[in-house]
Amino acid sequence: MQHGPAVRRRKLGAELRALRTSAGLTSGEAARLAGWHQSKVSRIETGTSGVKPADVRLLLDVYGVADPQLRELLLVLSGTGDDGGRHHWWHAYRGVLPPTYRDFISLESQASAMRTLETTVIPGLLQTQEYARAVTAAATEGASEERLDTLVEVRLARQDVLRTEPPLELSAVLDEAVLRREVGGPGVMARQLNRLVEAARLPQVRLQVLPFSAGAHIGVTGPFVIFSFSRTSDLDVVVLDHLTSSLYLEGKEDLRAYLEAFNALSLHALSPEDSLDFIAGAAAGA
């Protein structure tokens, strides 16, 4: 278990090492072409030190990496908010969002697919403004109206990943408690459930409900998110949210365990078609 920045440094270093090897260069040759000492390349590849976006760009040039999407992803892993002058929107909220939340958003913005188990609330990418505000107010008790407005604004801005081209592919297993927990009052909840019905019909969204009748299941230990990246599976990561921080699991055994858990939950959950009917029924009764 590691915090986001440490995981990102290691994953970035591993990917840069693989790209160097593919380019047929030793670390000494790469350092010479970049005008550095060999130890700098070694520190970057082992993730023992941070790396500036300009250094990542230079190495990618040295290795002949022209793929714009791969370059973008690796620059995100370096923690930059400026890839060749393109500002990442979440950096405008540095004074409001904790670093762990910004890390999460940066990974979400570059992931090709996201699998999530939700046991308490509607996934953030599918929340209405009203529901998002009610959830945020409960999670940040005592926050000013201005801060609430900003946090809700961020939550809604994140949803653009479902509308980009290509869109993020979202697969979510929702415990029935998510649908039954009344957040914001009956009206807010009814509109939120109707939004879920609309989302379930999108080709990039797959929703499944895990009904109470399924009994105890592997997901009772808590919610989790698995990010996958189309350019390289070595960057896939599991994110576990806690009250004050997020923890990242990057080991292959951890990834395998959570993927197997998600697949098992999918098998025990209602089919997407039956889940759609279930959500529609819950909306009608809200």
Structure overview:
This protein has helices at about 5-20, 25-35, 40-45, 55-60, 70-75, 100-110, 130-140, 145-160, 175-180, 185-200, 250-270, 270-285, and strands at about 80-85, 85, 115-120, 170-175, 205-210, 225-230, 235-240, 245-250. It is α/β, with parallel strands linked by helices and about 290 residues long. The strands form 2 sheets. The protein has a 6-stranded mixed beta sheet with strand order 5-4-3-6-7-8, with helices on both faces. A two-stranded antiparallel ribbon has the order 1-2. Helix 7 (about 130-140) crosses helix 8 and helix 10 packs antiparallel against helix 12 (about 270-285). It starts with a helix and ends with a helix.
Q: Write down the Rg.
A: 21 Å
Number of helices, counting only DSSP H or I runs of 4 residues or more: 12
* Strand percent estimate: 5-15%
Query: What is the helical fraction, as a range of percent?
Result: 40-55%
What structural category do the secondary elements indicate? alpha/beta
By DSSP, the count of extended strands is: 8
Mean pLDDT: 87
Spatial separation of the terminal alpha carbons: 39 Å
Given the C-alpha coordinates, what overall shape results? elongated
> What is the N-to-C order of secondary-structure elements (H for helix, E for strand)?
HHHHHEEHEHHEHHEEEEHH
Reported for the largest beta sheet, the result is:
6 strands, mixed
Strand ordering within the main sheet: 5-4-3-6-7-8
Flag low-confidence runs: 81-87
